[in-house]
Amino acid sequence: MKESPAKRATELRKQLEHHEYRYYVLDAPEISDAEYDVLIRELKALEEAHPELRTPDSPTQRVGGQPREGFVKVAHSSPMLSLDNALNEQELREFDTRVQTLLKGEPYEYVAELKLDGLSMAAQYESRQLHQAITRGDGRVGEDVTNNARTIRSLPLRLRGNAISNAFEVRGEVVMQRSSFERLNEEQEKEGLKRFANPRNAAAGALRALDPGITAARRLDYFAYFLLENGKPMLPSHWQSLERLAEAGFKVNNHRRKCKDLDELLQFIRDTESRRDALPYETDGVVAKIDSIAQQERLGWTSKAPRWAIAFKYPARQAATVLENIEVQVGRTGALTPVAHLKPVTVGGVTVSRATLHNEDEIVRLAVEIGDTVLVERSGDVIPKIVRVVEQGKDRRPFQIPKHCPICKGHIVREEGEAASRCVNASCPARLRETLLHFSARGVMDIDGLGDALVDQLLARGLVHSVADLYHLTVPQLLELERMGEKSASKVIKNIEKSRSQPLPRVLNGLGIPFVGERTAQLLAGHFGDLDRIANASVETLQEVDEVGPKVAESIKQFFGEVRNRDLVEKLRRAGLQFAGEKQPKKKGGPLAGLTFVVTGTLPTLKREEAKARIEEAGGKVAGSVSSKTSYLLAGEEAGSKLEKARELNVPILDEPGLLALLDSRSTT
Ligand code: IVH
């Protein structure tokens, strides 16, 4: 007999929860991502077919939720205060002496933990489920970020086992791992947006994003460190709380130790400091907490911080040295990154002779010139950075971005509002390696086997000078290369051949035009239907495409304006790539043709997506923000800033019945 859907859903949820816990909390997965996908897909399908089976704590509910206009303020169960700092051993000793005095010589123990560089968040659990998540805010009142917090995979939506039975609250730290941070900043740069200064800021931005989809994409992590009931510690010792939290399925940082005196605490600090760089997230010190809750209560609080805990901050790893030169490096999209050449200096035990300056704005912000003495900092990131100018050099000279690419002599341009100057030649050798890798990547031209190692060899032997040259490679040529057998050589050539039939959007994405990724490429291909039309379109015509604004249009124009890129396009044409795609017929006419709508707030019966679909079916356009060009704002309950903006601009405001009436009236006329 077939299992009932309800039973299967419960079973799937149980399995998924188990695997999420293994993966996100224990970092020890038992199944592959693909196997996980199969399970989650089955559950999604089940829940779609039987919506009544969907539960708020289902693993399918991690991503999603509607974007909101703002956050609701919520009072904390007890204040979320901050910690006093000790900046050196002496200050830590003073803290310890104070504890001794206040506890009148009674023995006590510390629990030492890492001070994670993130932001604190409280999460309330009721009936074993995540009920509400609140940011620290001003310590007394925070913001309800429940929908965003649900996307944090290491925060359980439902408890494991029977470790905790009553309603409770956890407090802990939301952090962004370095790898996620770096990926995010790469994406920011690609989009011409500002880089985040550090993972902490990036995590704060992600947690407070109005769209939970953004929070989900930025992959936050949560480490729990307090277990409270009615605003007070639930168990008699802090160590016990940490263990209980781990049992209940929370991620509790493993770098923790019970220390019976100051010496042990100092040892823990030394041990963790030396391992700091190897951790996947940033830490800026160690937090020491008195273990016994009874003793914590006796020690009490000042108005700002507990007297039973202290944050020891690692000394900043900085040193002063001379900025000898600034060189530019060229990345895949042609972006130029200024790199500082420093007089070698030891910073926290490591010799540093290079530092990143990110982009020209950074140089302006620092007001730094070649010859200045600068302060260099090595934080968790591997690449050190310049913090400020310590002393201006006697013979200082300003840095100027070159007019021509230092590698290929191609044109350098910097568009308004963009952080970086770029070399616009797609075949620039400096860009070539990255361009080739992007071109062959999965989801782009899908050339399996053309990875780092092969690309490097092709470049070293001068076998390719642009992506078009890939299509002239032969098996005998590849056989000359290291670690290339007959079988793999013919496989690669076959895969290159196969890629000739990739559809237009992929070809367009593969060209590596700044700001033209998968989605924009699809929209462009759908609108123009042909690569030549895109290449010849004016900036104005390009902007007729959905989601293409002046910045993207300008970048496309720039790209096809460069002779070398035109050449490349011709070579790809000769190689037989797909330049024609399917043009998507634009809905002409329709009762709402020519009208632009913005949708906001919660509508009484239609879901936002449904409302959008109705508008688009009727030929209307749906935009993300209100401007003077908006024809109507469709507003539901809890509409916020968009409603205000619409009123300001005198944009007519519709409610749901209004929209339906408009659809009706227009379709009969
Ligand atoms: S205990 C009253 N433990 O540091 C107790 N805080 O300077 C305060 N933090 O706001 C929190 N790691 O955002 C505690 N293991 C840890 C921590 C930690 C990082 C942050 C937290 C807090 C700030 C206090």
Description of the molecule:
The chain is of the alpha+beta class and 669 residues long. It folds into five domains: 57 residues, Helix hairpin bin (Helix Hairpins); 241 residues, D-amino Acid Aminotransferase, Chain A, domain 1, CATH 3.30.470; 74 residues, OB fold (Dihydrolipoamide Acetyltransferase, E2P) (Beta Barrel); 143 residues, DNA polymerase, domain 1 (Orthogonal Bundle), CATH 1.10.150.20; 72 residues, 3-Layer(aba) Sandwich (Rossmann fold), CATH 3.40.50. Helix 16 crosses helix 17. The longest helix has 21 residues. The structure holds 2-(butylsulfanyl)adenosine. The site of 2-(butylsulfanyl)adenosine (IVH) has 14 residues, from strand 3, strand 4 and strand 12.
Main pleated sheet = 5 strands, mixed
Strand order of the largest sheet: 2-12-11-3-10
Please state the overall shape, judged from the principal axes of the Cα atoms: globular
Class of secondary structure makeup: alpha+beta
Give average pLDDT, whole number: 88
CATH class of the largest domain: Alpha Beta
CATH architectural arrangement of the largest domain = 2-Layer Sandwich
Q: What is the CATH T-level topology of the largest domain?
A: D-amino Acid Aminotransferase, Chain A, domain 1
Number of helices: 24
Query: How many domain modules?
Result: 5
List the ligand species.
2-(butylsulfanyl)adenosine
Give me the CATH superfamily of the largest domain.
DNA ligase/mRNA capping enzyme
Strand content: 15-25%
Outline the low-pLDDT stretches: none
